[in-house]
Specification:
Length: 577
Amino acid sequence: MNIFDHYLDKIIILIKKLNKEGSLELPESLNGINVDIPPLNFDCDISTNVAMVLSKANKKSSIDIANTLVGLIKDTDEKIETISVAKPGFINIKFKAIYWNNFIKNVNEDYKNFGVNIKEEKKKYLIEFVSANPTGPLHVGHCRGAILGDVISNILIFNKHDVSKEYYVNDYGNQIINFTKSVYFRIREILYNEKFPIENTDLYPGDYLVDIAKNITDLNNNLKFDKFDDVSKELTLLSVAESLKLIKTNLANLGIVHDKFTSETEIVINKEVEKVIEKLKQKNLVYKGKIKAPKADDDKNWVERDQLLFRSTDFGDDKDRALQKSDKSWTYFASDAAYHHNKLSRNYDLLINILGADHAGYIKRITSVVEALSGTKNKLICKVSQLVKLIKDGKPFKMSKRKGDYITVEDLISEVGKDATRFIMLNRSSDVELDFDFTKVKEKSKDNPLYYVQYCYARISSVFRHVNLDINKDLTIYEYNFNYSNDEIKILKKIAEWPKCIEAASLRLEPHRIPVYLYELSSEFHSYWNMGKENYSKRFINDKKKIPNEKLVFLKVISNVIKSGMTIVGVNTPEKM
RNA sequence: GCGCUCUUAGCUCAGCUGGAUAGAGCAUCGGUUUUCUAAACCGAGGGUCGGUGGUUCGAGUCCACCAGAGCGCACCA
């Protein structure tokens, strides 16, 4: 029940018919025609720009065209109260009150599918997100991207796409060796009372390593820790497994579950890197060469060397990218190329990667390689989440990874809770930096959008409770012959926007539109609720302790949309607060 | 030096792929509770959409240039 699409279809049919009859010229594309929400303070429900789009092809003013169309539209639709032409050439339509009976009927009877974008072609998506190094628990920096990826998945799933959520485990390379060494020294600290070499800046100093070391020694008393090289293989596996356990717990506490974890080591062991390089070689995209130093670097620090390079400049990157290190091992980029080759072999329609702001510079080369391998542009979409600025008591505080005293996801959740974390992280466009204010997030007031929306749901629940009805049960109404007032229609119009919100969020991968919408809807509801104080007719429960069907469906429809939206966001809707 | 992102009210931000008179919250000031949840509501003030050009019926939105902020720029991951 997308009223905008419904009228767009009607209008397109009408102008095509007129074109066939020879009374109207059509432009090359009808894509510019839309049916939209009119601005505030306009006494109408929907508006369209058809006339303006048609104006050029017909060499007529849009006002003239609008005037002819207006009559024709009204003739075909008895639910229109007024239809008028406004200044530049908009056609504005206002529905009769009965229109909203039909609307609310449709929404209530098919509430599970209300908002689902049926026009969207169903696709198979693979979305990769988080993919933090398995060298410790997740910290706040990972959090935003994690939630972003999860909710984008939820939106796509809501729209009936097939979505696979994936985590790429970077369990290969120097970081992992350093991490394993750190665990090794922590183990020796436990077993032999040796001091941890804190001065070695390559090592990970965090306290959580002590726990990891304990877990490993507790469970593996047959292992010897006399020489690092002797145990490094087993210890790497054990350490990474411990890290992943931590990470999975963190994710679970955030309400996130991935469908698949792919190991980088496995990609390397299976020779997938060689395979992808061979494939790129065949396309003449790999060569031995040198990279130029970036201008900012002093030339003296720059070591020029011959290495295996991928021609990402062919795809718009500013330099070609190294595939192999001087010790002949693969670069991160090489194995990531192999991983993306692996993804492509699994036949997804579209790949999505969620990256942190600090990896934005990486996008060009990875999309280049995917384009090279798949032969299609835009097969891989990269979405960047900007930084989160943590604020406490009005002051920003920074985390220092070096000292190992950074704020973890665990800290965050125990401080403010999963729901607030998710809602606040999503409440802004991922393109802008986000202020995450601990003090405000914990506040139970209008300052906190999460509570504001939840409170709306709780108020509706309380009405259901008072009349002994279950808000979770489907509501069946036999006759929808109501007469909604302007105040109610205002909210129904907001409800009608829900499919539009979902459509935009899904098409543009912008989840923040959902919390923003839910806030607006809640605001209108709270406003309506307070009218009941002065105007008895606005109250839901009447003096006979009954609730008329008209008000009941009205509440039901609002609560369903809030529930639906909050489910996508991944937060609870308590019935009591 | 180069790339990406951002610049909208005092502050934090929306603005639905170019539409009409640019919207919220916070903060400030003033009001609302014998009545379904005041974790709420109502009202007031507050704007050259960073700047300059361009594209067109129409620009906060697209393009170019300029200014400012953040992130990044080797074989790290």
